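A.,

Following up on our hallway conversation. Structure tokens first:
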């Protein structure tokens, strides 16, 4: 009797183990089948194109004249993957469907110059999506342009150093066929000291890539102006000025972490001698839709100071008048101790179009000292009632060219 019990218990145990083993095996097979056929539900197989047909198309296209570059580049499947089907997804990507659970590796050595005969296209790449944006600063030159200069500005607060990187110049216009340019850099108002680049021989498009340093305190930094003079050296070692760039620092945000890279078109230097009391350059613009009169005070030159002390500063007062009565006045920031100050400040006034026949603008240059302010010179632009000559021409040109800045130099007159 005990032997029968042992036999029955052993049989039951073996049966349970065998049942568990069969269950685990069935689960693993089911898992493997699920992985093998997980991508078979996607319909619409892609019609593949043999590479032989592609090569024939390319050979025939070489006979025809080349018009434009192909818009797409084909992807090719190597011959080792021929036994596979390719299925088209809704987002035009390609995914492979396995007919077999594994792939038998190809025997024998492989060469990097494997033949592409019998390969198939699976997709294309559009090269237009990977183009870098075109730098139009080297291609778009306005009519009458005499050259363009690239440079960068950086200020080190701890050491109080202004770092200037002179990068390049393009499309210079020398007086002769050949050009050997160099650049002088000033930090205004100090016009006695300057830094100079190397001379680049026989080129209209010099690449400078030179660095310069000015020592300037942070307190006076925003009152300074960079001036670049581009010269050409002829065979007799004579220097000819090709153009200049004026770059006021007060409009820039200069910190230790920022490096300002800019380009500016060269301007011709005004070779006319200053008038008796100096000259002022400004732009006028009138927006007839908004009824807005805009004045941009650019610079002055040849000012005659009444007090030669170092603390002298100069500013410009812009006043809108109507029937010789003051409507509103605004003034620029003061520039320390320079007879040729740079401002580049814009002011706007409200003026209806019906008021332009009786309105005028008065620009006064004032010297500010510790005691009081002195008027160094004044100019009035407006209609025939208030001005003549260049001042009247400037006003009429502003009205005839709405929304456009009209720039001119004007001689200062003694204020009465």
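Then the amino acids I'd put at each of the 416 positions:
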């Amino acid at each position: 009797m005990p032997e029968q019990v042992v036999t029955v218990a052993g049989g039951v145990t073996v049966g349970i183990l065998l049942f568990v083993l069969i269950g685990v095996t069935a689960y693993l097979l089911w898992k493997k089948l699920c992985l093998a056929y997980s991508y078979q539900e996607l319909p619409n197989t892609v019609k593949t194109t043999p590479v032989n047909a592609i090569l024939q198309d390319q050979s025939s296209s070489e006979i025809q004249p080349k018009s434009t570059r192909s818009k797409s580049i084909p992807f090719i499947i190597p011959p080792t993957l021929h036994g596979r089907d390719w299925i088209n997804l809704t987002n035009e990507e390609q995914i492979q469907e396995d007919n077999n659970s594994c792939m038998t590796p190809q025997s024998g050595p492989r060469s990097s110059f494997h033949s592409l005969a019998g390969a198939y296209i699976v997709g294309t790449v559009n090269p237009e999506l990977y183009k870098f944006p075109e730098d139009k600063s080297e291609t778009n030159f306005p009519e009458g342009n005499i050259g363009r200069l690239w440079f960068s500005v950086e200020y080190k607060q701890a050491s109080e150093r202004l770092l200037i990187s002179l990068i390049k110049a393009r499309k210079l216009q020398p007086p002769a066929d050949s050009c050997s340019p160099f650049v002088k850099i000033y930090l205004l108002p100090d016009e006695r000291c300057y830094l100079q680049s190397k001379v680049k021989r026989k080129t209209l498009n010099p690449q400078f890539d030179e660095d310069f340093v000015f020592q300037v305190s942070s307190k006076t930094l925003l009152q300074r102006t960079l001036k670049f003079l581009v010269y050409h050296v002829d065979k007799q070692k004579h220097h000819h000025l090709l153009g200049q760039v004026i770059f006021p620092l007060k409009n820039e945000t200069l910190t230790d972490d920022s490096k300002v890279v800019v380009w500016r078109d060269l301007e011709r230097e005004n070779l006319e001698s200053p008038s008796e009391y100096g000259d002022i350059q400004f732009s006028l613009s009138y927006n007839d839709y908004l009824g807005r009169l805009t004045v941009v005070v650019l610079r002055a030159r040849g000012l005659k100071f009444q007090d030669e002390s170092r603390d002298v500063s100069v500013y410009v007062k812009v006043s809108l008048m109507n029937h010789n009565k003051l409507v509103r006045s605004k003034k620029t920031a003061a520039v320390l101790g320079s007879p040729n100050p740079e401002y580049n400040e814009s002011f706007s006034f409200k003026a209806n179009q019906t008021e332009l026949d009786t309105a005028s603008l008065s620009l006064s240059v004032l010297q500010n000292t510790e005691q009081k302010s002195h008027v160094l010179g004044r100019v009035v632009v407006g209609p025939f009632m208030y001005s003549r000559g260049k001042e009247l021409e400037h006003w009429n040109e502003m009205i005839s060219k709405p929304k456009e800045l009209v720039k001119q130099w004007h001689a200062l007159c003694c204020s009465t």
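Residues 287 and 403 are 5 Å apart (CA to CA). Curious whether your intuition agrees with the design.

B.
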